[in-house]
Design brief:
By secondary structure, this protein is of the alpha/beta class. Helices cover about 30% and strands about 25% of the residues. It is built from 15 helices and 25 strands. It has helices at about 5-15, 35-50, 65-75, 90-100, 110-120, 135-145, 180-190, 210-220, 235-240, 250-260, 285-295, 365-370, 410-420, 455-465, 490-500; strands at about 20-25, 30, 55-60, 80-85, 105, 125-130, 160-165, 175-180, 200-205, 225-230, 245-250, 275, 300-305, 310, 325, 330-335, 350-355, 360, 380-385, 395-400, 405, 410, 425-435, 440-450, 475-480.
Length: about 500
């Protein structure tokens, strides 16, 4: 029987360059030749703890070499890996743990006592801890076992991981990802982004998210690439490491911060061949400024927790600011209007897609899963998009972010793009707020590049030539900062809640 375990596929790549560092961090490193033995200790620990194939392992831990080994060991053992944002509070964890009911919960040593109390309350069996400094009860467990050579035989549709969506509107959903989902997407990206034999990845992303874990690390493993593994993003540290790397993946915020550093220039990027951006929209201003500063274009791509990557700008060929490129070769995508018909090029509709990367469904939510798929098997992303005549995709916002003002549909992204083209606006965010006459009022929240006393009058004047009147913001509010989550996505739910009475008072 063919073993479709993702780890079994990875293992083939450990021996291509056995003496090469896989992960190199401030707290330690590991070579490709040592991965199998090291994950073998985790596998033996799982066995001793009574964990079985298909059991869930929840990890809320610091980014570290050991945390990656935990992920790989779960794949190898056939356990289902569930990474959680390190910022989640105890009360937030209560939901995730009660929903997933893991056989093992791995947490930070400083939180272990508190987490044990919570686990007892939820009747969970095993809580252990770890951090980047090798502190915690997990390491005591590892010291008590001998490395195992065991690799579980998995089918391609066996679950490899569950990723919980951010849950900005309602209950967080656990997207179930199979071994096939993760492998198929990584293989496509390996080819589409033209990974080279001696590529070195600069990794400053968190590893509880699809971008940092399943895109960055899975691709690096399949390419037998060294990874410079930073604890977190620090612009000065990244600049110091760029001469040692060839590929970097980041969120738009990373690139904005790099551009704010005087030391970021063409010379520090001379060994780089690829900068990738995702997880949040990349402003055209950032794209253009980056190209002016470095001579390189950022490659923007688009994906979701449920699907990993769906589209990408090309590696070879023109990358267009404001677009997320073309559907990946493995993806069958379409854009559908309210009548269920495919839109003509240039029109806006809901993006739907199918492919081997599409998740198996939402954990313990069969009815919700059913609603997210069309009768002919396409996953409904909920993202509003348009397609150019040459096939380039532009994401204009979430379907749930659609503003219906006076009976007219307004897509926030379209208004934001018009605002971001105005020279004195640094950043914008557009939301719909309750309004007694219009139902919802288009409202813009902006950060200015420079002081502009007449900013509102000037903005409205400029928009007259760019947008239909019904799309114009009813009010324009100044902010010092736009709230974002860990991955750089604007938290519009927070803004909608804060300003919900703006037109009702």
């Amino acid at each position: 029987m063919v073993n479709n375990n993702l780890y079994a596929y990875f293992e083939k790549n450990f021996l291509k360059y056995p003496k090469r560092d896989f992960l190199s961090s401030d707290h330690g490193s590991i070579k490709f030749e040592n991965i199998h033995e090291e994950t073998g200790f985790y596998v033996a620990m799982f066995s001793n703890m009574g964990i079985s194939k298909g059991d869930r392992v929840v990890a809320q831990v610091e980014k570290s070499v050991e945390a990656v080994l935990l992920y790989l060991a779960c794949l190898r053992y056939g356990a289902i890996y569930i990474p959680l944002n390190t910022a989640y509070t105890k009360e937030e964890l209560r939901y995730f743990l009660s929903d997933s009911m893991p056989e093992l919960f791995v947490c930070d040593p400083q939180k272990e006592n508190s987490m044990r109390e919570l686990a007892k309350e939820l009747k969970l069996n095993n809580v252990i801890s770890m951090n980047s400094r090798k502190e915690g009860t997990l390491f005591h467990r590892l010291s008590e076992v001998l490395s195992s050579s065991f690799v579980e035989v998995c089918k391609d549709d066996d679950l490899a991981a569950i990723l919980y969506t951010s849950g900005t509107t309602g209950r967080s959903k656990g997207a179930m990802l199979t071994h096939k989902n993760l492998l198929s997407n990584a293989l496509v990206l390996l080819d589409y982004w033209a990974w080279e034999e001696n590529d070195i990845l600069l990794h400053a992303l968190p590893i509880f998210h699809v971008h940092g874990l399943f895109v960055a690390l899975n691709c690096a493993i399949l390419n037998s690439s060294k990874v410079i593994f930073l604890d977190f993003f620090d612009s000065k540290r990244v600049i110091s490491e760029l001469p040692n790397a060839t590929v970097m993946m980041g969120v738009p915020t990373y690139y904005v911060r790099l551009l704010n550093e005087q030391g970021f220039n063409k010379s520090v990027c001379q060994n780089m061949r690829l900068f990738i951006s995702g997880s949040a929209p990349l402003l055209s201003e950032t794209f253009n400024s980056f190209e002016e500063r470095t001579g390189m274009q950022i490659l923007e791509r688009y994906g979701m927790s449920e699907t990993s990557m769906i589209t990408s700008n090309p590696y070879s060929g023109n990358r267009v600011a404001g677009t997320v490129g073309f559907f990946l070769p493995s993806v069958d995508g379409r854009i559908i209007n309210e009548k269920g018909e495919e839109v003509v090029d240039g029109e806006i509709g809901v993006l739907e897609m199918k492919g081997p990367n599409v998740f198996k469904g939402y954990w313990k939510m069969p009815e919700k899963t059913k609603l997210e798929f069309t009768p002919d098997g396409y996953f409904i992303t909920g993202d509003m998009a348009s397609k150019s005549s040459e096939g380039r995709i532009t994401i204009v916002g979430r379907e749930k972010d659609l503003i219906i003002s006076g009976g007219y549909n307004v897509y926030p992204k379209e208004v934001e793009m018009a605002l971001d083209m105005i020279g004195f606006i640094k950043e914008s965010c557009v939301i719909g707020l309750p309004h007694r006459d219009f139902g919802e009022a288009v409202t813009a929240l902006i950060i200015l590049q420079e002081t502009n006393q007449e900013f509102e009058v000037n903005i409205k004047h400029i928009l007259n030539d760019k947008l239909a009147k019904f799309k114009h913001p009813k009010k324009i509010l100044l902010l010092e900062e736009i709230p974002r989550n860990t991955m750089g996505k604007v938290q519009k739910n927070i803004l909608r809640e804060h300003y919900k009475n703006l037109y009702l008072e």
